[in-house]
Structure formats: structure tokens, C-alpha cells
Specification:
The protein has 158 residues and is an alpha+beta fold. Helices cover 35% and strands 23% of the residues. It comes from Nonomuraea jiangxiensis.
Length: 158
């Protein structure tokens, strides 16, 4: 079963975020708190959305996503920040069901893109996405500003 998350799901969401970060060898980078997630997901101006996969009443996976906008197409799209299914539940169709839910949201709302990034060493995920028909965008390089470089660019002076 796939359903939108509620505020009560925040502890489970944060647990899975930590599990995913550990899998991606980046557990030390997780700084999110339950309070931050509650505000970001369920506050007055939600910044992102979460759908959960459940099996027998247990949360076994999630997607966290937010809206993007394509200037070329002139319509919004979805950026999938995270897709995670707990290891003991992989292979049960939960990842596919979560992706189908996002695709259905795109279809219902007239969005024309569903995009995400995957680590280059994550062969099981790459294989899963390519089986869905996803196309790797090798010509696009991803960049990120965080912490001090972001503050410097913003003109923050300490």
C-alpha cells in the first residue's frame, strides 16, 4: 500500500533517511531533526512531500520529492530526492509501487518530468531505474553549494 505521509510518520521517515545515508556511505552527513522534517513536510509552506510504502501496517519504504519547473516545457515536474526500501523488503514491488505513485501524480497534474540522481556505484538502483525506461543524462553534471561556500556566495560576513 502506498500513502501520503502524515506528521505522525516523521520518526519513521527520519529513521529511513538515516538508513539510506548509511547505505550511501554518508551517515555522517545527516543533520535533519524530527522538528525540521515536521516543519518542512507539514508546516505552513511545505517544501517537500513524502509517500510511504506499507506492508502489514509497517512502513517499509518512502519517497521524498519536491516540485521543479522546466522552462523549456513550461510546466512543473517532480524531483525525487530519495527513494528507499528497507533491505528486508526489497524485491517485493515496493520501489516500483512508489515510482508508479509519483508517475501517476505527474500524469494527474500535467507534469512532464520525473527526475532524480543516483550514485554511480549503485548498480542495483541503476538497473531498477533503467528497467523502468529511465534515461541516464550523461551530458549533465550535478553541482552543489553548501556550508561555507554557500554562505560566502550569499555575502555572509562573520
Amino acid at each position: 500500500m502506498i500513502r501520503p505521509a502524515t506528521s505522525d510518520d516523521v520518526p519513521a521517515i527520519l529513521d529511513m533517511i538515516r538508513e539510506l545515508a548509511t547505505y550511501e556511505k554518508a551517515a555522517h552527513e545527516v543533520r535533519a531533526t524530527e522538528e525540521q522534517l515536521r516543519e518542512a513536510l507539514f508546516g505552513e509552506h511545505p517544501a517537500a512531500f513524502v509517500h510511504l510504502a506499507e506492508q502489514d501496517g509497517e512502513v517499509v519504504g518512502f519517497t521524498l520529492w519536491f516540485l521543479t519547473f522546466s522552462t523549456w516545457r513550461g510546466v512543473p515536474g517532480i524531483y525525487l530526492e530519495d527513494l528507499y526500501v528497507r533491505p528486508q523488503h526489497r524485491g517485493g514491488g515496493h520501489g516500483l509501487a512508489l515510482m508508479r505513485e509519483l508517475a501517476a501524480i505527474c500524469e494527474r497534474r500535467g507534469y512532464q518530468r520525473l527526475e532524480w540522481a543516483v550514485l554511480d556505484w549503485n548498480e542495483p538502483s541503476i538497473e531498477f531505474y533503467e528497467k523502468l525506461g529511465a534515461v541516464r543524462l550523461d551530458e549533465w553534471l550535478k553541482y552543489r553549494l553548501t556550508d561555507e561556500p554557500l554562505q560566502r556566495l550569499a555575502g555572509r560576513r562573520d
